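Proteins fold reproducibly. Consider a sample protein:
=====
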Amino acid sequence: MDMNDNQPVTRAELREELKAFEVRLRDELMGAMRRIETNILTAFHGYSRGVSAHLHDVDTGQHDLRIRVSALEDRVMALETRRPL
């Protein structure tokens, strides 16, 4: 159907044109929503990788600190339990 001429349009033609427009609009919206979803998921994935790396560093540092504190506790215990001369 050509909208530029001044010919009358039947209801059936109008319904057909509206249905085609609805399908095109739905397809475009679905594509846009999929792109948005992909962008959001990609952003969250990048963020979670950074947070995971940071937490790994914190856990490693905490483990190292526990080892050092344990060594100090052992040394203090050895000093405290040593018999006087």
